[in-house]
Amino acid sequence: QKEVEQDPGPLSVPEGAIVSLNCTYSNSAFQYFMWYRQYSRKGPELLMYTYSSGNKEDGRFTAQVDKSSKYISLFIRDSQPSDSATYLCLGDNAGKSTFGDGTTLTVKP
Amino acid sequence: NAGVTQTPKFQVLKTGQSMTLQCAQDMNHNSMYWYRQDPGMGLRLIYYSASEGTTDKGEVPNGYNVSRLNKREFSLRLESAAPSQTSVYFCASRKGSAGTGELFFGEGSRLTVL
Fold first, then answer.
1. A50 touching chain B per CB within 8 A
2. CA angle, corner A103, sides to A14 and A81, nearest 5?
3. Cβ–Cβ of B107/A34 closer than 8 Å?
């Protein structure tokens, strides 16, 4: 079983839609969780970084962590065509970072 | 400020050939990592170096060797390339030795093994 499972997608939504991206994890030792965004033919870039259970908001993006159910989510409000990318969730335990397989999102104008 | 720089960006090899991917970071980070990314899959850790002078295996180390040349540079070597090593390779670094904090990635090196 993979330590981080991510909803595979691909996902296609109209501009302005609310997007929900989801991952589950099995490693209870994970202390930190991150969401990375990767544009085509580019390296991943950090989008959100969370430590504890609860919500963290940054502009149109909200990261949610539920450690009791081992579930992490990323919500994008008012999605834009520029949000079209692959989104990768990550669980981190003392330097060993495990990524989900990624969800490719397309936001259509 | 270059961040994480990888060379080469593209490479085509024949089966059995060897090559080294180079990675350098200018952020004075302690930890450095090599990942590979295959279509439809996330990033899988090959090797990492928590600090200068140390290296450890990740999830998929077979067929690879690494060298942490100094604090800035971390190279990945394929001694005898195989078609299964066709992939996009990403180098990353982070500030802490204990592994906390943001991972900064390079732009990737696309390797094809024929």
1. no
2. 30
3. no
